[in-house]
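thread from #wetlab-drylab

HS: before we spend reagent money on co-crystallization trials with iron/sulfur cluster, can we at least see a predicted complex? here's what I'd submit
DV: go for it
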Amino acid sequence: MPDFSSGKRYYTYDAYLKKTFGQKCLKIALDGGFTCPNRDGRAGFGGCAFCGGGGAENPLGSRGRPTPSDGGARSFASPAPPLPLRLQYEKGREALSKKWGEHPAIVSFSSYTSTYAPVSVLRALYDEALSFPDVVGLTVSTRPDALPPDVLDLLSGYAARTVLTVELGLQTVCDEVARRLNRGYPYSVFLEAFSALRARGIRVCVHLIDGLPGEGREEMLASARALAALAPDGVKFHELYLRRGAALADAWLSKPFPLLSREEYVEILASQIELLPPATVVERITGDPLRSDAVAPLWALDKKKTSALLDKTLAKRHSFQGICYNCTN
Ligand code: SF4
């Protein structure tokens, strides 16, 4: 629920963690060495047009910039973490503890498609990550078309023994826009995966991108409305930002197309948050580009400024998350 005492008018991930675990938690990103079915040919080639490698929101994972053969060169059957998981965990913990102090950790497989491997391989990776000291939860980011029944059953087991979140990339509910961006699956596949996860009691967080080519304010609100009707456990929003390696960045560099300004993005984002159920956790409100790879818009590099503008905008509207949930217009 929105926690006005924290100055936020939406249900933040930090508030959710404190409610669930009684204290702040660190979220430590791990790269399991997965590839992606939209890169290795099982669902498509080339990846989503907004993906610079690593995933829709992961700047570059821990592997550096992708090469044309990046996806295909990695093995579906035996993905190899680029660094031993324990080393990744220790490095991540050290860096985050310096900033936030010592806290329990959620381990997060967030690079590429982190359910895209045989169940025995997934089990070994997830079990190892959960064995690290002070780990209290597991997050796995994936595509809705990479959740076959045996993987869903595996995930059910983790949901029963830890706080598991499955993050599903969606970005938009509009199939035509998604098709042009080479997302590689229709909205109906997302709906099937979402239902299958929820039917197994698995916590689901959905990713949306605002400012995709071909979408205006109404289309972005339509995605938020559709998600609100599903009442996901969490939503991650971010603005479209272009990074080197992404097909959209190449397209923009050869022929620039309009990108959202910070003010436009925050105005739409505030309206989307108003549409969400109060109990849905707003787990992210901006992207997290690396300065070295950012192409445009460069305002995306200043996340604090975007967050402050969102707070100001909601306060100015005397508004908060859920104020328009279930509104009929
Ligand atoms: S599914 Fe994710 S990792 Fe694969 S190409 Fe799309 S954004 Fe990138």
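DV: The CA atoms of residues 39 and 70 lie 8 Å apart.
HS: ok that's useful, forwarding to the group
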